[in-house]
Structure formats: structure tokens, C-alpha cells
């Protein structure tokens, strides 16, 4: 028999929040205003100062700098204001001759494409002092550096100067202080985006448990999940991540008060883990599939909320269709299993996303003669698919149903059965 075709990626491209459909880039974590999730996009709010930083004028030893440049291009000048205040409070010693001029020069070099690693190492030393003196200015310094890490050209210098390791350590010792944990997470997430040397450091055994713990604690879930995503996305070496990582994320999806935005971030992160075999096996053996199917059912009367849930369902459908193409899925879920029973019922629903999920998942399961025979002779699924196609559904539903029907027709004995139901005439109309 010809092997059944994996129909998932052709018919239902992955839909990520402001990400490309094929190889999504990592998220950039922004600063807004309080410790609650933002209402739009994935911008994350963590500055204690309610006044937008970009409207401030900075004073550096008597020199006023009006910030007409983007924050990342005046990162050092911004830090200088914070350091000056900490110095005046006798919380730090600056220890660098002409430090104000050096900071302004570092910003100027940055705009020219150069990175002053020596000044960055000096900044690291100031951060150590601020931590030792319990300076409240450390929060603002962390926010400034987190904004700077949005610029990918600064990410490796941050690691080389020891600033990434500083914030990774900080997360392990200040885990109860949400005010500093939030910008700390933002820095780590931005610094690790698409930067493998930084990711390697972040998943080290001494740091990774603290990051996973922030996901489990849920207080800053809308930040912690994108951080995990940025660390893991398109990164092959996840040996330090425990097998149950995916189970942890699926369990969080079931929390009653979780926002749709966080649900989408979680399911995107789950998709990243499921690119590796060992996480696929744990996902299937722990029956996470059943949990995801249940999460596809709720409908929200709020149109904006329902739109966000729809995007979540599309991303979840992609995960289920991908995982259903694996041998482990076929071994776990036979045509007599409860999961297959649920998917069969969804073929008769009027909800397009549930029909798509059913067609893609069952279609990928229908990749061997015995399974295809059972689906046709025992479950009559070909009849349900032909009924769907006769209803002239949406393009996505039609393609999913046609792909599923194609796989069912691969065994010789199934061709005559399906053909006797008028399949040729129905299909010819598409």
C-alpha cells in the first residue's frame, strides 16, 4: 500500500501571534505599565514608572539629554541617570574616571555599530553593587537593559560582559520579589531570543529550574511563557529540560482564569518542545492529547475574546495534526480509543475548527491498511466525509476532508466502497 500522506502542514499552516507561518521567530518582550497582562498583542508590561520612558529628559551630571533617539540607542545614558541616583544615595561607588563621558561615548559608538564591552563590564560591576546594597534603582536598571536586549546586536555582548549570568543568578536569589523578577525575566527572554550561546547558559542546571518555577507559579505567566519560548524555539539542545516540561505547560492551559493571549503563548511553546522525540513520547503517553481536545470546545460570547480563542484553536489544531503523524500516536490511539471516538463525533459538528482538527488528526492516523479498512468498514467515515463535502464548506474544511478521504481510499478494497457512494461526482465539483 502507498503510505498515507501527512496532510497537516499543507492544509493548516501554523498561526502564531505576530509570527511567520513557517519558522516563527522569537518574541520581543516590551515594557509597559503594571504587573498585569497587556490587552493587545504580546507586549509585556513591567516598568514601575507610569510615565513612558521615551518622554523623559535625562540629566547626567548637569548635562540634559532629550531622548529623541530610540531607547536602545541611548541605553547607557539612561543607565547613567539611574547610577547617578544610586551614587547620590550612597548605594554604589562609580569607580570609573570620566564615567559620564564614557557612557555617552558608548551610546555614540552603539549608533555607529560598535559595542563597548569594557563599559558593559563596568555596568555589570555596578549591578553587583546595587544588588549588594539592595538598591531599588536596580529595578529601573534592569528595565533599561531589558529594552536594550531587544536589539539583537547587544545580546552576545551582554553574555560576554557577564550581565546575562547576573540576571540568571538574580532570578534564583530574588524569586520572591516580583518587582525585580519581572524585568529580570524580560531581560533573559530578550537576550536569549535567536541567540544560541545565551540559550545554552539559560538552560544550565543551576538556572533552568528557576525559569520553570516561574511558569509553575503563574504570577507572571504572561512573561515567563514567552521567555521559555525564546529559549527553546529552534534550539536543538534541550537535554537539561525535564521530560515533563510539556505536561507542565498543558496543565497550565487548564487553569480557569488563564487569558487567551497566555493560552496562545503556551500552545506555541508546547509546539516548540514537540519538535523533539522525547517530548513527543511523554506528551502522548501522558494523554495530553485528550486535554488539548477538551480545550478546543469552549466558545466565548465576547467577539474579541472569541477571535483570540480561534487563533489558539488553530495553533492547537496544528500541534494535534503534527503529533498524529507519529508512530507513537498510532500505537497509543487505536480506532477504538476514546480520543478517536471524540474526533469522529466532531465530523458531524457545524464548527469548522473542530471539523478541521478531526479531519487532519484522523487523516494522519489513516496511514496503514488496517486502520483505513476499520475507518471505512466499521466506522463509515467515508460517508461522513462525503456529507461534509456535499455541504460546500469553507476551503480549509474542504481541503482537510479531501486529504482525509484520499488516505482512506488507498487500500484497494476501500476504493470500490468509497466510489459506490458517488465520491467521484462529489469530488469533481471541487
How would you sum up this structure, described in words?
This protein has 430 residues and is an all-alpha fold. Helix content is 60%, strand content 1%. It has helices at 8-11, 75-88, 99-111, 117-132, 137-148, 155-160, 163-173, 178-192, 196-202, 208-217, 221-232, 245-253, 260-273, 277-285, 288-295, 303-323, 327-332, 338-346, 352-365, 369-378, 381-390, 395-408, 412-419, 423-428; strands spanning 58-60, 63-65. A two-stranded antiparallel sheet has the order 1-2. Helix 8 packs parallel to helix 11, helix 10 (208-217) packs antiparallel against helix 11 and helix 13 (260-273) runs parallel beside helix 16. The longest helix is centred in the C-terminal third of the chain and has 21 residues, at 303-323. The two termini are 26 Å apart.
